Amino acid sequence: MDIARNPERPDANPEMADAAPEPQAPATVRREDYTPPAWLVPEIHLDFELGLEVTKLRTTMKVERNPDGAADRTIHLCGDGIAVRELTVDGAQAEGWTMSGANLLLPLSGDAAEIMVETHLHPSTNSQLMGLYASNGMLCTQCEAEGFRRITFFPDRPDVLSRYTVRMTGSKADFPVLLSNGNCTEAGEDGDTHYAVWHDPWPKPSYLFALVAGRLVSRRDSFTTMSGRKVDLAIWVREGDEDRTGHAMESLKHAMRWDEETFGREYDLDLFNIVAVSDFNMGAMENKGLNIFNTRYILANPDTATDADYDAIEGVVGHEYFHNWSGNRVTCRDWFQLSLKEGFTVLRDQMFSAAMGSAPVKRIEDVRILRAAQFPEDSGPLAHPIRPDSYQEISNFYTATVYNKGAEVIRMMHAMAGEKAFRKGSDLYFERHDGEAATCEDFITAMEDGAGLDLRQFRRWYEQAGTPRVTMRAEHDADEGAVTLHFTQAVPATPGQPDKKPMPIPLRIALFDREMRRHGGEKLLMLDAAENSFRFTGCAMPPVVSANRGFSAPIVLDADMSDTDLVFLAAHDDDSFARYEAQQQLLTRELLGRDADGAGGDRRAAIADALGAVLDDTRIDDLMRGELMTLPAISFLIEQAVPADPGALVAARDGLREYLGTRLSGPLNALYERAAAVPYDLSAESRGARKVKTLALSLLSAADAAQGARLAQAQYRAADNMTDRQGAMMVMANLDVAEREELLADFHRRHAGDALVIDKWFAIQASASHADVLDHIAALADHPDFTMKNPNRVRSLFMTMAGNPAAFHDESGRGYTMIADLVIALDPINAQTAARFVPALGRWRRIEPKRAAMMRAALERIAARPRLSKDVREQVGKSLED
Ligand code: TRP
Ligand code: ZN
User: Where in the chain is the domain with CATH 2.60.40.1730?
Assistant: First the structure.
């Protein structure tokens, strides 16, 4: 590295702190090092003079010594990319303060003080989208996890809770709407400017602060809570988008009612605001009383949003609303406890979506996401427990592990306790810790005390990373009419955790009588050791064992089943998840090229028969039928075959699709015709019809491209909704036919200027599996509609490509090069988003050697760049570690 360009020590000169790059080795923060804050900030007053180019802020805080903290005379105020303009203590010029890196250290003489600090912010040039930034001419904030320190100097840690009063002054023309947390207590005008004062009565950590100012319009509604209080609801969007907010509003009201009925949680302010912004790093943010959303999780109408979009909106609106209790009223002591709010809130949003729609289908979808996103994380270089022990950059820990595995862990507690006792546990948790910054340990203890569970060994789920591998073997004793199930379990080594202890694993099982095709009731087995055995009597014949029903534990189960037994369960299991699972197992075996056993040895034919039975089984609805028609994700298959050859897996999947499309062309055509006749609405029947229609089309086109193109073309032309239109486009995008470009051009023309739909246009092309897909992606990166400044757009092109094995794992290695180039180019613009592309390359150890070497080389090329962000450096460093 060029020594002359080595950064100066950031603390050498306080004036330089603002511009100083990160030091080369980012500091590691450890969970065991937690100490309570020395100073508390019971009250804070923020006074903003708003401007897109410059926003001036005076922050006034009342600080006092924490009786439970260290006796430190100096208060540590975090800062990030901001400079001190003015600083007073109790009204007098502050003395003796220093900068430590970007942070402000201020010695105080008494036990309490009033600190005033002035900072200037530059929202228009804030491309990181953390702190205060501009999006489409409007001002908004994102403070979780450590964005508040980009706004003002403050003890920016979640265990410092303050009452906020916010005053905003700004141009009436530029910022007609002024919003912050809580209630508006005062407003007025003065010529061209106006002001508003907002007060939030609930003490909160700084990461829940929010401000929005801009030209916005709202849809309004109201909700009457269980105790009879009326809450005003508003969803704020850009002018012209109001007619696309109906579904989000309905979802919000459903969520508010559901949380009262299911968890006894009532909303606690008179106003609930949601704002949709188009430039956003994540899905949405639960700021107290002022949720801020990525537009993609708010805006929907039939012409622009798919059925999947409608579901995602309902889930995310629910998720952020549920945080009002699991996250806001009870918050996190430190960021190692992130799963305390996120794992629990994901479980709550999953339960909510299950209650609003089809519970079995929702469960299958959630398990599919877990396996496609979390299992690979858990078996790779970035594996971490749901409660991590250390981090360099906390933004890198908003992961499928913390969120989705975190939800599975609490779901297991739910399974062990049962509905009623679980509710007692959650009630006790909320009651005990209301208004506090709590820990995962607090949650576990409340569950032990309230639900009556013994969770001593269960704590390992919070401590150990890695997906447990469980084997099951059934031993039948014909003389005694008994069967014994023998289990072994092992948790694989993960970075920093070479040796693992056995986990408690709640396994829901049923023993099927082969002839009667029935079972004698479900049982919940608790595995708790490296080896466990359970004996059951009353089995004259060897039963077919249906295990891990409902996916009661997030494990990999090798049940040592014959193909014949899997075919049996795929046809007869009464647990929808288990039925789906048996079929996925069969498909997985076939796609991995495992030897067939059992009936005649022709597994392909058995799979086709099973799928054929699914296509016209009147006992299942179309939404479920769609799940049973879906092949396992390549990312899941890669986990099953180490080292994996992605090219071979893609070829195997395409081959199987062609075979199934050919073998089942009659019933698939019949299904297609039936589904195509169902008119559009949002009922489960109509959505189900659309789901199976496009899946049938996709299989048919794999068998006969010409017929597929014809049908897709017709479906596209006839479509009166985005689900059908996008489905047809996706099928068409895979085909090497002339009509492809014509449809893509038509789609773009039709939806020009509609950012969320143009995102789909990029994603459809990036998900294609034809031979020229990488050329197309490279050309799309130069398209006038492409921009590195908008995370949705970047993700729609490049995250879709990174998740498309036919493109990303192209044997030339060009997919890896393109992702590395992207990370390097995006890092200075939006480090958080750039870092999210690194894990795809980090999975090199599970891939065959030729590709693995190219993936590694791509990572090394990133690592060699000077001035990488802390975010990217952590991910790349860990991905290359031995
Ligand atoms: N707490 C948010 C959620 O899960 C996540 C989030 C939104 C976030 N924006 C962020 C996390 C920015 C890190 C950075 O609902
Ligand atoms: Zn969340």
Answer: 1-214
Q: Which residues pair with 105 in a beta bridge?
A: 76, 98
CATH architecture of the domain with residue range 1-214: Sandwich (2.60)
**Residue nearest ligand 1's atom 5 by CA:** 285
CATH of domain 216-305: 3.30.2010.30
- Please state which architecture CATH assigns to domain 752-882: Alpha Horseshoe (1.25)
- Ligand 1 pocket mutation, candidates 342, 398, 792, criterion most atoms within 8 A of CB: 398
Task: Round to whole Å and give the CA distance between 105 and 300.
Answer: 48
pLDDT digits 0-9 by tens, 754-807: 999 999 999 999 999 999 999 999 999 999 999 999 999 999 999 999 999 999
pLDDT over 70 at 408, yes or no = yes
In the chain, residues under CATH classification 1.10.390.10 are: 330-463
Give the model's pLDDT for residue 882. Answer: 76
Burial call 585-602: b when 16+ CB within 10 Å, e when fewer: bbbbbbbeeeebebeeee
Residue 284: nearest ligand to its CA?
Answer: 1
Residue 273 Cβ contacting ligand 1 at under 6 Å: no
Percent of the chain with pLDDT over 90: 95
Q: Beta strand 469-477 with 482-490: parallel, antiparallel or unpaired? A: antiparallel
Q: Which residue has the higher pLDDT, 368 or 598?
A: 368
Residues 6 or more apart whose Cβ sits within 8 Å of residue 825: 788
pLDDT of residue 20: 46
Q: Is 610 in the pocket of ligand 1 (CB under 6 A)?
A: no
Over residues 350-364, the pLDDT tens digits come to: 999 999 999 999 999
Question: Helix, strand, or coil here: 534?
Answer: strand
So what CATH class is 330-463? mainly alpha
Q: Which residues are catalytic?
A: 320
Above 60 in pLDDT, residue 443? yes
CA-CA distance, 285 to 289, in Å (whole number)? 11
Predicted TM-score (pTM) above 0.90: yes
- Which of 129, 132, 142, 288 for a ligand 1 pocket mutation test, highest count of atoms within 8 Å of Cβ? 142
CATH of 469-553, one of 2.60.120.10, 3.40.630.30, 2.60.40.1840, 3.60.15.10: 2.60.40.1840
Atom of ligand 1 nearest to the CA of 323: 15
Residue bearing tokens 């899946």 = 695
What is the gyration radius of the CA atoms in the chain, in angstroms? 28
Which part of the chain is CATH 3.30.2010.30? Answer: 216-305
**Location of each CATH 1.25.50.10 domain in the chain:** 752-882
In this prediction, residue 471 carries a pLDDT of 98
